[in-house]
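pinned: reference chain
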Amino acid sequence: MDAVEPQAVTAPLRADAERNRQRLLAAARELFAQRGVDVSLDDIARHAGVGVGTAYRRFPNKHALIEELMVEKLEELGRIARRCLEEEDDPWAGLTGYLEQALDLQCRHRGLKDVLFSSSEEHARLAEVRARLAPIITALVERAVAAGVVRPDLQASDVPLLSIMLSTAGDFARDVEPELHRRYLQIVLDGLRPAREASTPLAVDALEIGEFQQAMSRWHRRR
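pinned: its structure tokens
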């Protein structure tokens, strides 16, 4: 009898622990989407309706939650990029389709924008997933340039910076006009068309990959 009693007591505790873990994950998904990844673990615990101590027992810190949930969103972005490259034969439709879908996803989920431009030192797993995304974006851009459907000076490193610009516009107006980012996306897409004789040349060269990473690191230190 003594050997059976611990099982009767501990099995429900394991089920309760898993329920609390799922409640915390659901709360974190919602808050990360609404407010970004700057929310605290205490906020997540309150939103989940569990104690703060329970939250820290399930997850050692907020970074563990961010990595568990936001890897999913980055992988979703990667699937979008691969579909646009592999299933869309038209180079212009492939590149612009990625920009449109990626921007929609970022504007619906503030946390995705945060982790797309987070520092590699903070989240190694997120950095690995981002690294797998980079060559797909490069292929989309290079294919469009080779086909002559975009201006020849467009570089792959322009794409994440355009995403920052456009998703920031989306954040700014999301409570008033949640679709406003589409207006600015169209302006940007018109600017990606091949340069004509009367077009103004770009004043500054695109960042090299190393320069982009350096700028991102310094940007985070300033925040």
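why pinned: The chain is about 75% helix and 0% strand. Residues 20 and 138 are 41 Å apart (CA to CA).
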